[in-house]
Amino acid sequence: MSAVMPWEHSGSKISARHRERLAVVYVRQSTRQQVIGHRESTRLQYALVDRAVGLGWEAGRVLLIDDDLGKSASSAVDRSGFQRLVTEISLGHVGLVLGTEMSRLARSGKDWYQLIELCALGGSLLADTDGVYDPAEYNDRYCWG
Description:
There is one protein chain. By secondary structure, the protein is an alpha/beta fold. Helices cover 39% and strands 18% of the residues. The protein is built from seven helices and five strands. The protein has helices at 16-19, 32-37, 39-46, 48-54, 80-90, 109-122, 138-144; strands spanning 22-29, 62-69, 94-98, 125-127, 132-133. A five-stranded mixed beta sheet has the order 2-1-3-4-5, with helices on both faces. A hairpin with a 4-residue loop joins β4 and β5.
């Protein structure tokens, strides 16, 4: 098997292998007041389901996790949604994780770096409204942290 040089990539980071797995949309806001007062943010986060479909996932293969609405991201301990996300990634079920602001996933550096590492090891991509990133690629990983 020969190595593929960076300039030989097809351009898209998303492959059939990614699309065979789930796309996970993680929705979160820190407080109940934010959920009530910032409905546009909530709407934009839910709209990421459509972004996943636009990126090639079947609607039935998009998992929406919104269990952590109104919960702070300072720790993963009391966030069942984040724990479910980490579990699904660890089991190799996830091809893509989507969020409007990836910092919403984890405010704790420990939790954030664990998530990036699990995605890199499991071959899961990360996406926000600006692009799709592969944490296993040096340049993309550099962007995240």
